[in-house]
Amino acid sequence: MASTVSNESQFVVDLLATLRHERFSLAAWARFFARSWDMSRSTASAYPGLKRSWRHFSLALGMLGFALLAVSYKLEGSTITLRLLPGFLFCVAWQISDLYWHLGLNREPQTGALYSNVGVANFCTQVRGLIASYVLGRLIGGVPTPTILILSAFLCGIATDMLDGYIARRTHTQSKLGQISDGEADFCLYLAVILALIQQGILPLWVGMVMLARFLLPLLAALTSYFIMTQPVRFGSTIWGKCAGLVQCLYFLILLAPAPLAVIIWPVNLPLLLVTLALMIAAPTAQIVMNMRQEKRSE
Question: What is the pLDDT of residues 207-243, one digit of tens each?
């Protein structure tokens, strides 16, 4: 099994080297995605139980998505629901396809053995992605997002974020797939919440851009490592990143607090904002430094 993992890694490295050699032309990109998709299909075909689990996941996410649309139709009417529908469907389709694409990463970290199903922890992560997709669908459709809806989406996102890690540790089902899915879901959720807060005039644009930089800078560094240097993308966490996430959550909760509470807690708004901005800068810097140190050790 370790040999299989090694062969797959070498296959990806060869694809990236070819892509770079052909100077990232459109034809090279087409071959890259086609061969990557063929590799994903081969993995799914070789492990029917895992493929069946993905189908069940897709069906469950589809039903939850339909429920969100039904509630939106009931509360806001057909006009708003139709406006948010295209963006929401695109995001959900991308989410399901991305999960299928990365099924080969659903492996036990030590032995490299492929898990027989996607797992409950990953489902919690996908639910967080679905919530983010709904808010992003509203933003794409130009539909205003009420403060109570932003708060509800954010609280559900926090709950699933805590739950997926806890379940993965208790059931011993940590995987690279979980790491990637968790990072993608976090990015999409915070992107959706930040843009919704900016749309509502609750969060200044420049503050939102600094907050997004916390995710964008490590992402750009990872993509550079992956596509330009053909090095594996490294994921991890730092104490700075954890502190930044915690403080940012507290700041969002203050911004979204109901009016009676807002009057009481508003004095801490500015001090918490300054701490948040400082940690937003420190977190991606620490992540990049950690990745550079890991690269030197692996040389």
Answer: 888 888 777 776 776 666 666 655 555 555 678 777 8
